[in-house]
């Protein structure tokens, strides 16, 4: 039986950089998840009888919301849902399943690298038929609908069994529970030279992959250990836990410091990697070298032709604006297009669909390609392994040679988390007002060449996205970028991105190399004055 349930709108269901993210108790309010899911369906048209993919990263509240989503999909007229077994699908695996089975779209339940648990974060994101995050046109329509919604539709189908692989009927709709790993592992096998990587492990290559008790555990075990023959124990913390073992599933130098320390130690493995809550981010650490995500994007782009899936070369490279320009130098050398987009994977979809870009990346540890329409943590790790297997050099040698060829973009991000929202907004609006007066002035001994608030015009559909981050460019190619996070769930997070290019001085300490730019940013924006903080909460 299908019920129409009266509801009242919530005013705070605006999707951010990557879907709607809130604390679990917010999602547990009466009809909160139902309102949002119905708003998604109401913002779409033409899905009657079509397939919807549903899966999440296994965090606290995942199963409850999946049950609601399945029952609501049936009531709203979808013909079929494909759900990952146990409610599990990594974000890139969900993207792949949407594309492979020509689904109308998908609901991905995740708050990515944010912590999980009864008082931590939850999230819902809608992806369109190309497998990628819904573009702003759709997220705007979802938000508009959420402010006026008065009822939602749900089928009384009871609790469906998500733990057995198989197909059944529920509420007049087909439910197919699938192995979350199989299709994804097959896709990886089609892109990379598994024989070469197997031979690498046979030669004694040692790797540490930390799944951080998040969604990539089962994927990493199957691909690295079962299919590629890496020794048991190569993939660690592989059981997805609803609270990620009480840690932030954020593969950065703070939350994966244990891996960093191991990789810098005396008996370090050859290669270290980690992924985040929903499996779309990657951390890459070679023995004795942390590879910044911006450098990783550049190195992968320069060497991608060594993997079978990219042997024909790249059509173009895209990166988010705050990501360093290291990849731009590779694109220039390869003679291919380079695109600079706002933060968030949704801006890459059109470029990938149009065949303008093959590889994309963000400084926040996201890298991916046109194989899906999401960033993909294990994909990046496997491309690295493919390159290491073919070049037979260490990660450190590969990165060092890359810098010798292209120069080095020293890069760091400083995050000020949970600062007062009003103070953060004041900082940004005051800085915005100052922008026109900055060019030509000198700050902390550095001369400002240009300053603006980044605006993007999508070259495919012409849509314009304004106010995407404030850039201050200095003489010599250095720059600082300031923007507010669109994924946080408490207060505001201010991000300061700092970049300096050096053609030949390749072995400076990163934070020392960037110190004068950090001083300049504080002088220009008054970060300490506005936030009351004397140092960032996280430096990556
Ligand atoms: C952050 C990152 C951005 C990334 C987004 C989603 O957004 O900066 O690059 O695309 O998270 O990643 P923001 O607005 O907080 O800066 V994930 O792995 O959280 O889905
Ligand atoms: Co993520």
UniProtKB/TrEMBL annotation:
Where the record annotates domain Alpha-D-phosphohexomutase alpha/beta/alpha, the positions are 13-152, 183-285, 294-406
What's the EC number here? 5.4.2.2
The family database entries (Pfam families) matched by this protein are listed as: PGM1_C_vert_fung (PF24947), PGM_PMM_I (PF02878), PGM_PMM_II (PF02879), PGM_PMM_III (PF02880)
Note the SUPFAM superfamilies from the entry.
Phosphoglucomutase, C-terminal domain (SSF55957), Phosphoglucomutase, first 3 domains (SSF53738)
BP-aspect Gene Ontology terms? carbohydrate metabolic process
- Reactions performed catalytically: alpha-D-glucose 1-phosphate = alpha-D-glucose 6-phosphate
GO cellular component terms, A-Z:
cytosol
Q: What cofactors does the UniProt entry give for this protein? A: Mg(2+)
Its Gene Ontology molecular function terms?
magnesium ion binding; phosphoglucomutase activity
Q: What UniProt keywords are attached to this protein's entry? A: Isomerase, Magnesium, Metal-binding, Phosphoprotein
State which residue ranges cross the membrane: none
Q: What class of enzyme is it?
A: isomerase
Provide the family line.
Belongs to the phosphohexose mutase family.
Its name, as the record gives it, is phosphoglucomutase (alpha-D-glucose-1,6-bisphosphate-dependent)
| Organism of this sequence | Pseudaminobacter soli (ex Zhang et al. 2022)
């Amino acid at each position: 039986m299908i019920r129409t349930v009266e509801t009242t709108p919530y005013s705070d269901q605006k999707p951010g950089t990557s879907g709607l993210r809130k604390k679990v108790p917010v999602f547990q309010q009466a009809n909160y998840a139902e309102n949002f899911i119905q708003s998604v369906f109401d913002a779409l048209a033409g899905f009657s009888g079509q397939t919807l993919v549903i899966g999440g990263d296994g965090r606290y509240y995942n199963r409850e919301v999946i049950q609601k989503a399945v029952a609501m999909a049936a009531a709203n007229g979808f013909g079929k849902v494909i759900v990952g077994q146990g409610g599990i699908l990594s974000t890139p695996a969900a993207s792949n399943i949407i594309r492979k089975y020509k689904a109308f779209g998908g609901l991905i339940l995740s708050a990515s690298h944010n912590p999980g648990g009864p008082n931590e974060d939850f999230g819902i994101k809608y992806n369109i038929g190309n497998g990628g995050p819904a573009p702003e046109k759709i997220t705007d329509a979802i938000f508009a609908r959420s402010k006026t919604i008065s009822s939602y539709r749900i089928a009384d189908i009871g609790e469906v069994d998500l733990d057995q692989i198989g197909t059944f009927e529920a509420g007049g709709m087909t439910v197919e529970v699938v192995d979350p790993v199989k299709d994804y592992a097959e896709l990886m096998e089609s892109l990379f030279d598994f024989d070469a990587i197997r031979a690498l492990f046979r030669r004694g290559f040692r790797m540490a992959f930390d799944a951080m008790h998040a969604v990539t555990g089962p994927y990493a075990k199957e691909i690295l250990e079962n299919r590629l023959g890496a020794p048991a124990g190569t993939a660690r913390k592989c059981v997805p836990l609803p609270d990620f073992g009480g840690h932030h599933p954020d593969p950065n130098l703070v939350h994966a410091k244990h891996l960093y320390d191991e990789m810098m130690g005396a008996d370090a493995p050859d290669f270290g990697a980690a992924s985040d809550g929903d499996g779309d981010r990657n951390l890459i650490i070679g023995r004795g070298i942390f590879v910044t995500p911006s450098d990783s994007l550049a190195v992968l782009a320069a060497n991608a032709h060594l993997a079978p899936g990219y042997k024909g070369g790249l059509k173009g490279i895209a990166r988010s604006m705050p990501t360093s320009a290291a990849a731009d130098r590779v694109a220039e050398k390869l003679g291919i297009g380079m695109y600079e987009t706002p933060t968030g994977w949704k801006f890459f979809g059109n470029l990938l669909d149009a065949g303008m870009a093959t590889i994309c990346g963000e400084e926040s540890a996201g890298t991916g390609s046109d194989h899906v329409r999401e960033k993909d943590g294990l994909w990046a790790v496997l491309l690295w392994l493919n390159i290491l297997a073919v070049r037979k050099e260490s990660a450190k040698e590969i990165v060092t040679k890359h810098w010798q060829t292209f120069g080095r973009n020293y890069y760091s991000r400083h995050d000020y988390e949970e600062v007062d929202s009003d103070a953060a907004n004041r900082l940004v609006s005051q800085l915005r007002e100052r922008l026109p007066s900055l060019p030509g002035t000198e700050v902390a001994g550095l001369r400002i060449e240009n300053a603006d608030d980044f605006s993007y015009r999508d070259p495919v559909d012409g849509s314009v996205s304004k106010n995407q981050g404030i850039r201050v460019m200095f003489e010599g190619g250095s720059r600082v970028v300031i923007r507010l996070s669109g994924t946080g769930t408490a207060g505001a997070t201010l991000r300061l991105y700092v970049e300096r290019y050096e053609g030949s001085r390749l072995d400076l300490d990163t934070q020392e190399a960037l110190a004068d730019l950090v001083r300049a940013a504080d002088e220009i924006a008054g970060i300490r004055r506005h936030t009351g903080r004397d140092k960032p909460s996280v430096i990556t």
